[in-house]
Amino acid sequence: MSGEWNTRQSLLLRAKDPDDEAAWADFVKYYERFIYHLLHRMNVNLDDMDDMVQVVLVKVWKSLQDYEKQRAKFRTWLAKVVRNAVFDYYKAEQRRGNVIAANVLIDESSHASDGSDLELMIQKEWELYMTNFALERLRGIFSETAVQVFELSLEGKSVKKIAHQLDITVDSVYTLKNRVKARFIKEVNAIMREVEF
Hints:
Blueprint: H1 9-16, H2 21-41, H3 49-63, H4 74-95, H5 99-110, H6 116-139, H7 144-154, H8 159-166, H9 170-195
């Protein structure tokens, strides 16, 4: 699946154009919440979260001109931008006397040259984020019961358990699961065409 999860160059090329406000709005639409999730995973203080998301987006916008796909995958580049922004954040927190920030900064600096853990986390978070994005779209298409059937099947619950839990027939579970699954695949592919290669 990892080959399918590369950021679409056409959106990046459009977003690089400082005059293309629609492209930047699309870019922010897909990445703002994702960056928020990453910062949360990196233990940025909740009080600073909104400001940090904006800091990262500004850094991305300013640095997007320098991004070249030939040198690195977009997620690798994004990992570097996020890591540097968070590292700067923790350095500022340390200067303010925040002991937790000092401990994180020491831990972060020991891994500063190796971004592979962060890149792996970003890849997993991106796949999860896009999956959830597709599930959100399904909620506008199918009934809550149909979406619940699909989600419970993803959790590995048997058809009989799902039928019992939702008080529907086994045949209904099979039907709903297959309908939602087929549409889910279409939604994921549509999202990938919007933001991915």
